[in-house]
């Protein structure tokens, strides 16, 4: 007859309890499986970074964003200016355009991009920023863009707030790079545009070699200097002469189209930079800016926004308003007609000329 000590009985009891403790709780298991299935579905169909938060989106002050856009354009312009003056361009080619023209990039483009992109990103980390240039270098010396410029505070009393997901900021760190390499400084600009739900709302065009900045906010106002230039340009009369400004390096067959549309009394000016050409229209130095080949939206958005602020218009050759809501759709293949006045008239003449050429 075996005798089990008290300690042995306790150990035996613990062992038996351990063996009996492993049980399947069906309700708990079902709950666990359900949670895992939901997580897997969210990952598969929404992406791990696309799981929506219950928190409301950040509301962005457009007045602060305008201030930052001006600051970024002017700071990028200083990079452009310094590189050109020092003649340290280090020019490279990104390839050829459809018109077989060289598409260059320089140190001016890259340095300006870094300053503009990073300063805006640090001031508004929740806002999507789209730039012509791509560069992986992050500089610790780039401060956030100034969101409280005194001149903006004095010019604008009111404000507007927009959810961050509705905003796209388009920047062109150096417009007219080809002319920049040729030292044709008058055509060079740096540009920032704020699009709200695809609509060009705020535009900034800075001319670094003239230390001049024009800006406009659709539905609000434009920079005081630009208002004066528009007023002065509106007093000049050209009679029956139609003044058309076109690209000097990407013009295609635009000259022939202009002559067909407006007849012998057509004055054609060849110029570099979409920003420059749009400003010439705004200032009354040209009646319309005409373009018939493809063009990228960072070239257009800022000028488009300023025209919107002045009740002007920029459309494709088919009369469609440009949409700036998608980075993937950065190319405008529909040509361009930009005017401050009489857009419907000029557009109709261009369309009729195009129709005649295809018949």
UniProtKB/TrEMBL annotation:
Catalytic activity of the protein: a myo-inositol phosphate + H2O = myo-inositol + phosphate
Main location: membrane
Names of required cofactors: Mg(2+)
Annotated pathway: Polyol metabolism; myo-inositol biosynthesis; myo-inositol from D-glucose 6-phosphate: step 2/2
Keyword Lyase: no
Topology versus the membrane: Single-pass membrane protein
Keyword Kinase listed: no
Binding site for Mg(2+): 132, 172, 174-175, 299
Enzyme Commission number: 3.1.3.25
Transmembrane regions: 24-43
One CC-aspect GO term: Golgi apparatus
Top-level enzyme category: hydrolase
Gene Ontology molecular function: 3'-nucleotidase activity; inositol monophosphate phosphatase activity; metal ion binding
Alphabetical keyword list: Hydrolase, Magnesium, Membrane, Metal-binding, Transmembrane, Transmembrane helix
Localization: Membrane
Pfam families the UniProt entry points to: Inositol_P
Similarity comment: family membership: Belongs to the inositol monophosphatase superfamily.
Name of the protein: Putative inositol monophosphatase 3
């Amino acid at each position: 007859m075996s005798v089990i000590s008290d300690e042995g009985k306790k150990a035996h009891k613990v062992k038996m309890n351990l063996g009996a403790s492993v049980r399947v709780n069906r309700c708990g298991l079902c709950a666990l499986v359900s949670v895992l299935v939901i997580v897997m579905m969210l990952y598969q169909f929404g992406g791990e970074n696309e799981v929506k938060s219950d928190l409301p989106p950040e509301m962005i002050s457009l007045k602060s964003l305008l201030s930052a856009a001006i600051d970024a354009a002017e700071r990028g312009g200083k990079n452009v200016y310094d590189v050109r003056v020092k003649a340290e361009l280090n020019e490279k080619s990104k390839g050829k355009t459809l018109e077989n023209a060289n598409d260059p990039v320089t140190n001016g483009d890259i340095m300006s991009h870094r300053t503009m992109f990073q300063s805006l990103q640090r001031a508004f980390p929740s806002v999507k920023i789209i730039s012509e240039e791509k560069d992986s270098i992050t500089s610790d010396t780039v401060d956030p863009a100034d969101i409280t410029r005194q001149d903006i505070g004095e010019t604008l009393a009111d404000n507007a707030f927009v959810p961050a997901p509705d905003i796209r900021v388009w920047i062109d760190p150096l417009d007219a790079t080809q002319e920049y390499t040729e030292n044709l400084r008058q055509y060079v600009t740096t540009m920032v545009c704020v699009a709200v739900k695809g609509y060009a709302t705020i535009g900034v065009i800075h001319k670094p070699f003239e230390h001049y900045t024009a800006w406009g906010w659709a539905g609000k106002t434009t920079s005081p200097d630009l208002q004066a230039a528009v007023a002065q340009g509106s007093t000049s009369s050209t009679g029956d002469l139609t003044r058309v400004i076109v690209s000097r390096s990407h013009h295609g067959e635009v000259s022939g189209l202009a002559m067909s549309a407006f007849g012998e009394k057509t004055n054609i000016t060849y110029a570099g930079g979409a920003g420059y050409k749009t400003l010439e229209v705004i200032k009354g130095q040209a009646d319309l800016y005409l373009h018939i080949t493809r063009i990228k939206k960072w070239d257009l958005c800022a000028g488009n926004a300023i025209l919107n602020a002045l009740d002007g218009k920029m459309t494709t050759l088919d009369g469609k308003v440009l949409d700036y809501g998608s980075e993937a759709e950065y190319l405008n293949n529909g040509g361009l007609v930009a005017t401050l006045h009489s857009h419907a008239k000029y557009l109709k003449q261009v369309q009729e000329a195009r129709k005649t050429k295809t018949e």
